[in-house]
Amino acid sequence: MRTSLALIALLTLSACATGTVGDSQYQRELTALEQSCRDRGGVLVSTGAITGHPGTEFACHISGPATRIDR
What we know:
Elements: H1 2-18, H2 25-39, E1 42-46, H3 54-57, E2 58-62
Antiparallel strand pairs: 1-2
């Protein structure tokens, strides 16, 4: 019984935290940021910040061999 109540409470809270159904502005920005990072050969990593803006909450981590920049 307690498990069911806890599960219902968690589902209710998670529903409130997600906001509206569908793509939010945050999700669109995050998707664009992720695609841009992937195009450069990187992966998004959390910065630890909670700001509501994906550009400050995530950084693009690009790993691999170092390259020379021709000048």
